[in-house]
């Protein structure tokens, strides 16, 4: 199944939802398919990874409040809203520090992951510098007619060059994975907030 076929079928199965929710869901899964394709999958493989249209639509409908799937206006819940506000105020000494802690942990993990990626690229740069140094050393000892030292420097430079090339491609794959994970996480968080905002 192609991307367009998947999104078209998904749109039909979500016909009972408001147009805004349908558009957001289609945009979310379109981004997911594009991300999978950027990571090397074919269009059909990317669509298959998401699961069947029925499974995806069932998950979306399960996340949508029941009142959003009916045309009748929901009953007023002013008293409930008041209780929510009271509970939020009374519980703020408990949930607010926990929220700050959770956010701090997430940010720390995110920064740490990118720090590891940057460190890997630093290693690649070190290998590249070693390769350059080996070549320059080979040339220098070659002019001094010191063949043994020249060969040693050349060999070391070639080894460093090989390691630099190999590790560079590995770092690129890691960086792509982190970027994909970041985009997926932010899309998921945005989708959750959109759902929550629409429900309220």
What labels would you give this structure?
transmembrane; transmembrane helix; mainly alpha; membrane; MFS_trans_sf; 200 residues; single chain
Describe the structure in your own words.
The chain has helices spanning about 5-15, 20-40, 45-50, 55-65, 80-145, 145-200. The model is unreliable at about 70-80 (pLDDT under 50). With about 200 residues, the chain is mainly alpha-helical. It has a domain at about 1-65. The chain contains six helices and no strands.
Q: Identify low-pLDDT runs.
A: 70-79
Roughly what fraction of the amino acids lie in strands?
Answer: under 5%
Radius of gyration: 27 Å
Number of helices in the DSSP assignment? 6
The major pleated sheet works out as: none
Mean pLDDT rating: 80
Bulk shape: elongated
Number of separate strands:
0
Class of secondary structure makeup: mainly alpha
Report how far apart the termini are: 36 Å
Order of helices and strands: HHHHHH
Helix content estimate: over 70%
